[in-house]
Amino acid sequence: MRILLIDSDKNLVSSLDGALKQRYITDIALNGEDGSYLSSINSYDLIIIDLNLSDINGFEVCKTIRNGNMETPILVLIDRFEMNYKVFSSDRGFDDYLIKPFNTDDLLERIKELSRRIRLYPIADSAPMLEVADVWLDLDNKMVCRDEKRLRLRRKEFEILEYLMRNKGCVVCKNVLLAQLWKYDSDVAPNALEVHISYLRRKLRKELQVSFIKTVHGFGYKVEV
Hints:
- The chain has 225 residues and is an alpha/beta fold.
- Helix content is 37%, strand content 23%.
- Strands 2-1-3-4-5 form a five-stranded parallel β-sheet, sandwiched between helices. Strands 6-7-8-9 form a four-stranded antiparallel β-sheet, covered by helices on one side. Strands 10-12-11 form a three-stranded antiparallel β-sheet.
- The longest helix is centred in the last third of the chain and has 17 residues, at 192-208.
């Protein structure tokens, strides 16, 4: 099961991400714009949206997702003091809500309830391999394979390649990659992503003769199919 968490509260994200990733594949967006983008290029089983985002009202994100004809279940997080009749006076595009403050057990129970309601599949059913052209990514053993060759990568290099391969053919913005792979880590160096991409490309070219990670200047990167 893959979950997208859209929340601008870095402390809350840190707490929730630690609990969720023990059970689910979790993507993180720290603002509504990045969350809307991730929801448009990836397939999620559940999207969790905090209504108090730093850039866009959470209801607008729900609307954007629904306008894209996505029926992915949405769970919104809302502060108690914001609860009023207007929240539920019309169809706001979400399936359930959770009032803050809450503990992680409350959230996990609500996710289970939504899972039962819409008959979601567990993470165990996820494919253990990703394929782009003749390159395979072994998610269990954390290796890249091509023909008979095998290549082990450092953790961040592997995570970058996995994310780009999951979004093959699509441009992935730099800020989305940073938010996704470094999440709430404010100490990451400004050029950390570029450095990891450089090492990753070098290893793929040298060991597997692969050069499918392209730079889209002014935007980000993509794996060309």
